[in-house]
Write a structure and sequence with these properties.
heterodimer, A: alpha+beta, Nucleotidyltransferase, domain 5, Substrate Binding Domain Of DNAk, Chain A, domain 1, 6-stranded mixed sheet, 29 strands, B: alpha+beta, Nucleotide Exchange Factor Grpe, Chain A, domain 2, 4-stranded mixed sheet, 3-stranded antiparallel sheet, 2 helices, 7 strands
């Protein structure tokens, strides 16, 4: 009953499982690394290369290499390679196939049941797209889990003293990875886990720190040899980039490091101290602290006045300056534990719990056996295991959803409703936990003897909910017809129900006549037919890493 | 019921039975059939039941522990075999970098007509140290087709001949692979031809159209 956790990242991905000793373990990539670059190279109509080699190929065959696809997850984007159309979901499916292929090579077991992590800011649309990517890869996606929640699980920060544990706890997760930065506040209320707020910068990460060090080394050399131009030598620059990353790692453990920069028969010996590095990169650190401050302020507005735990996640957080800055500026004591692999490891633990939850038989005794089994596998107390299994992670409505209505205050609404002001009346507001139900909401007809009503469903398009049409997107409609002839202002009811998988069910009803209309809108993503099509296309590729 | 770990269990005495010396003037147990006897029997049965549960749990955890020990032992054996490689990993990375730099210096000295043999001998020594670490050099020839698992393109060089598209134009640095597993530690760094219709032939290493 092996289950796997997958950190499907923007730049790198990683797969982990809980091994026989009860510990989450990261499985190496085909080239022996913990993570695999999330880059796909469509080498031929039959072969696909994923990972470092695909990344290296981008210079030669840019039209056949796709990367950073996570940024387009859930969007209606198409790519064509060798005549085959692809979507962000199908490209991600190929990354997943390579991860699971490499995992199978190491464990000898087929990978089937997985939990895939997503950023905390992903809404239903992006989460569903991620789930579909797993489906296209031939996987059974047990759940899609927010990355900071996965990290908190790996850090054993969720509190697992048993089911129904009372008391509200708040956790701040500071996640600085290779290419992105996020801070998230999580609330744990008994068995319910919910993301309170999240903020970040999708283009700020460890690579920026590396670039600063590369610049330091390059300028250190050219300052002494201004007549030489090593910046134009690709091998030199490649070497410098590798050295910069090594220096950054080394300075997390030591206080100073020497480096010889050689080019065209000349050499400069440079020394970089931890203090110099912190000065060089202080602007980057300040940017993360600014975002952290904003997140803390947002959380405060939502009633969070302190944090019970602060977790440092992402490979970059091994830099002592980060923990120090959190201490100095916010009096927060961060802790870290295997920060660059925590998300995948937490997902692996969650996958095991989910598998037990979904396969737990109805009767108490068999359920108890399943709990005993998972407790034995993890080497923990059954009560503790029961507590972990009982945890529920809430998904929320990503954006506001509503109906387009005529503004009754506009005089034109009486004489020429088509020309009157229209606006969006939001029924479902963002951040409502799913499944969400608005209950019947009363609306009124605008004209005398109005026999039908067009129910136009619109979705919030901007960052903030607004009633103006231009700040919303039309996503579907249905008609409530056969209304009895009555004066303007006759009532009818509409209710919205959104499922956990993002299916918006709209129900309109006129009580006196019994007329009603029901229609469903799947929020974004591929329909079943296209998923089948993509599954067939993806299955035909020979994938290697 | 409070959790009981194995170390709490004394095989001679169930963990949840209090350690209590029998008083000297303890009363004789009530005869069977009386109410007191039923209660005593019921209590004993209850205790036996709990004991049985604990023993079963103990065996289950012991079996799990044994399987963990077996696995750890197996992994330990594997680690012993690969330990040298793990320890050598950063050293090999640095040796490859040193080899690259010495090789570049040799090329520079040769190109400028200076004595290059001494530097070249140091590069050879580094290659031999790498070889003793189980890491072998491999290269590519101009005209070889691009192989993503063995080549890393550093730059592209425009060429007018379509048949040479995506072939090696010039090797910049040799690659290294583990002798035992064949795993490529560092692919060959090279410049590659890129077909550009109407483009005059560019000289490798001089007219790179685009670099990474």
């Amino acid at each position: 009953m092996a289950t796997y956790g997958i950190d499907l990242g923007t730049t790198n991905s990683c797969i982990a499982y809980v091994d026989g000793t009860g510990r989450p373990v990261v499985l190496k990539s085909a080239v022996g690394e913990d993570t695999t670059p999330s880059v796909v190279y469509f080498e031929s109509p039959e072969n696909v290369v994923v990972g470092r080699q695909a990344k290296d190929s981008a210079l030669l065959v840019p039209d056949l290499v796709v990367e950073l696809v996570k940024r387009q997850m859930g969007e209606d984007v198409r790519y064509t390679f060798h005549g085959q159309e692809h979507t962000p979901e199908s490209v991600s499916a190929l990354v997943l196939r390579e991860l699971t292929r490499a995992a199978r090579e190491q464990t000898g077991d087929e990978v089937r049941d997985v939990v895939i992590t997503v950023p905390a800011y992903f809404g239903v649309l992006e989460r569903e797209a991620t789930r579909k990517a797993g489906q296209i890869a031939g996987l059974n996606v047990l759940d899609v889990l927010a990355e900071p929640v996965a990290a908190a699980l790996a850090y054993q920060a969720l509190g697992d003293a048993g089911p129904g544990t009372r008391g509200v706890r708040h956790i701040l997760v500071y996640d600085l990875g290779g290419g992105t930065f996020d801070t998230t506040v999580i609330r744990i209320d008994g068995d319910d886990i919910q993301v309170v707020c999240t903020d970040g910068n999708a283009r700020l990460g460890g690579a920026d720190w590396d670039n600063k060090i590369t610049d330091f080394l390059l300028h250190g050399f050219t300052d002494q040899y201004p007549q030489l131009d090593p910046g134009g030598d690709e091998q030199f620059m490649q070497d410098l980039a590798t050295s910069a990353e090594q220096l950054k790692r080394a300075l997390s453990a030591t206080r100073a490091r020497k480096h010889n920069v050689r080019f065209d028969g000349s050499v400069v010996q440079l020394e970089l101290t931890r203090e110099q590095l912190e000065e060089l990169t202080s602007e980057l650190l300040d940017r993360t602290m600014e975002i952290t401050g904003r997140t803390i302020a947002t959380a405060r507005d939502k009633g969070v006045d302190h944090f019970d735990d602060v977790l440092l996640v992402g490979g970059m957080t091994i830099m002592p300056a980060i923990a120090q800055a959190l201490r100095d500026r916010f009096e927060l004591e961060g802790r870290q534990q295997d920060p660059h692999l925590a998300v995948a490891k937490g997902a692996a633990l969650f996958a095991l719990m989910q598998k037990i939850k979904v396969s737990m038989p109805g009767d108490q005794e068999a359920g108890a056996d399943a709990v005993q089994e998972v407790a034995a596998r993890l080497g923990i107390d059954p009560e503790q295991a029961r507590g972990m299994i009982a945890k529920k992670v809430a998904t929320v409505v990503p954006r506001a959803f509503g109906l387009k209505v005529v503004d009754a205050k506009d005089p034109l609404s009486k004489t020429d409703p088509d020309r009157a002001r229209h606006y969006i009346e939001h029924l479902l507001t963002a951040n409502t936990p799913l499944p969400a139900d608005t209950g019947p909401q009363t609306f009124r007809t605008i004209a005398d003897n109005q026999r039908l009503v067009l129910l136009e469903v619109w979705e919030q398009a901007g960052a903030v909910a607004s009633a103006e049409l231009e700040h919303n997107t039309h996503i579907g409609e249905g008609t409530l017809s056969d209304l009895p002839p009555r004066p303007a202002g006759a009532p009818f009811q509409v209710d919205f129900h959104m499922t956990e998988t993002g299916m918006l069910q709209v129900h309109g009803r006129e009580a006196d006549s019994g007329s009603e209309v029901r229609f469903d809108i799947q929020i974004g993503g591929l329909d079943e037919a296209r998923i089948r099509e993509a599954t067939t296309a993806v299955a035909q590729y020979e994938v290697s890493g | 019921m409070a959790a009981v770990t194995e170390k709490d269990v004394d095989p001679a005495r169930p963990a949840d039975q209090p350690e209590r010396p029998e008083p000297a003037d303890a009363e004789e147990p009530a005869p069977a059939g009386s109410n007191g006897g039923d209660a005593a029997l019921s209590e004993i049965a209850g205790r036996l039941g709990r004991l049985e549960e604990q023993v079963a749990g103990f065996h289950r955890r012991s079996a799990h522990r044994e399987s963990v020990i077996d696995r750890l032992h197996e992994e330990n054996q594997q680690l012993r075999g690969g330990f040298g490689r793990i320890v050598l990993e950063p050293v090999v990375t640095d040796l490859i970098r040193l080899y690259d730099q010495l090789s570049r210096e040799v090329r520079r000295l040769r190109a400028s007509g200076q004595d290059w043999q001494l530097t070249s001998s140091f590069a050879d020594d580094v290659a031999q140290i790498l070889d003793r670490c189980g890491v072998e050099a491999f290269s590519a020839e101009p005209g070889d087709r691009f192989e993503p698992d063995r080549h890393r393109p550093l730059a592209v060089v425009a060429c007018a001949d379509e048949s040479r598209h995506n072939t090696v134009a010039e090797v910049v640095a040799v690659g290294f692979a583990e002798r035992e597993t064949g795993r490529v530690r560092r692919p060959v760094h090279a410049r590659f031809h890129q077909y550009t219709p109407g483009q005059d032939e560019a000289r490798p290493g001089h007219d790179a159209a685009q670099s990474q």
